[in-house]
Amino acid sequence: MVKSGARFAVFNCPMCYVALAERTAKAGLMPILVSDLCRLAVGEMPKIPGRG
User: pTM of the prediction?
Assistant: First the structure.
């Protein structure tokens, strides 16, 4: 994903997020749940762990 220019790794499954978020972040991508991505799209600020 990094090679393609992606900035986010979007997860639908909360358990997948828990299992892979740290590894994804170390690879240079911002892990985010699809529900939080939707909140960003409508102008809300989701609570993203480690991001404020």
Answer: 0.73
